[in-house]
Specification:
By secondary structure, the protein is α/β, with parallel strands linked by helices. Helices cover 34% and strands 25% of the residues. Strand 1 and strand 2 form a beta hairpin.
């Protein structure tokens, strides 16, 4: 197994101070290169689970194992994982190339390496000529492709997607899910993909897991 989630558990405090269980003893294992779609009703804890896997939320209990190593306590930036959210969360004042370069600058790669990898990832998502535009000069689908390029540029060992296509219209959703699937398979990235759309889950995933 490449990524193993064992006994993941999380509760939050509600307004009246009661603990509310959100994720309760959740187990899931993914083989290397596998894409699992996580489906389930709104509020069942999908985003909370994904945030724990990414290291953006601390679990109450449970362990996360990546390639045989316990990474439960490892900070987000050391997990080698990339996240694509529903909202593109691009930096509005930076052009596309700088948005994609950001994760590499943080990791202190050389300017030459950064340029090469940014060009490669923009080509990968079909935006080779868009490096100089700013996000508000792009369509929603193009912005989501930039978000994907920004995730892939760090060559993640795990890709985590939280309803990345739900802000797009139906035609574009269909097109982009095929593109994401092709990329995910070509790069053989272990992927956890949250969606509400069962057709999207079927199109994108090797396996569908229901939560809640
Ligand atoms: N930081 C928080 N503090 C308190 N409660 C929270 C917090 N984050 C999430 N919750 C609660 O946890 C529950 C699960 O939320 P989560 O966002 O994980 O659901 P989800 O399955 O992703 O839903 P959706 O499909 O609508 O995105 C919800 O009831 C939510 O209100
Ligand atoms: Mg959610």
């Amino acid at each position: 197994m490449h990524l193993m989630l064992n006994g993941m558990t999380k509760s939050f405090q509600d307004k009246s101070g009661h603990r509310v269980s959100v994720v309760n003893n959740f187990n899931l294992s993914l083989t290397r290169g596998e894409c699992v779609a996580l489906v389930g009703p709104s509020g069942c804890g999908k985003t909370t689970l994904l945030r724990m896997v990414a290291g953006l939320e601390t679990e109450d209990s449970g362990t996360i194992t990546l390639a045989g190593r316990d990474i439960t306590k490892l900070p987000a930036e050391k997990r080698g994982m990339a996240v694509v959210f529903q909202h593109y969360a691009l930096f509005p004042h930076m052009n596309v190339a700088r948005n994609v370069a950001f994760g590499l600058e943080v990791r202190k790669l050389s300017a030459d390496q950064i340029r090469k990898r940014v060009d490669e990832s923009l080509a990968l998502v079909g935006l080779a000529d868009f490096g100089n535009r700013v996000p508000n000069e792009l369509s929603g689908g193009q912005q989501q492709r930039v978000a994907l390029a920004r995730a892939l540029v760090i060559e993640p060992t795990v890709l985590l997607c939280d309803e990345p296509l739900s802000n797009l219209d139906a035609a574009l959703r269909k097109q982009l899910r095929e593109e994401i699937r092709a990329l995910q398979q070509r790069l053989s990235i272990t992927t956890l993909y949250i969606t509400h759309d069962i057709d999207e889950a079927r199109a994108i995933a090797d396996r569908i897991v229901e939560m809640g």
